[in-house]
Amino acid sequence: KEKIEITKEQQALMKIILDAYNRHQIPQDVAKKLLQDQYSAEENFLLLTEMATSQVQVLVEFTKNIPGFLSLDHEDQIALLKGSAVEAMFLRSAQVFSRKMPKGHTEVLEARIRKSGISEEFMTPMFNFYKSIGELHMVQEEQALLTAITILTPDRPHVKDQHAVERLQESMLDVLRKLCALQHPQEPQYFARLLGRLTELRTLNHYHTEMLTSWRMNDHKFTPLLCEIWDVQ
Ligand SMILES: O=C(NC1CCCCC1)[C@H](C1CCCCC1)n1c(-c2ccc(-n3cccn3)nc2)nc2cc(F)c(F)cc21
Question: Which atom of ligand 1 lies closest to the CA of 54?
Answer without folding.
Answer: 6
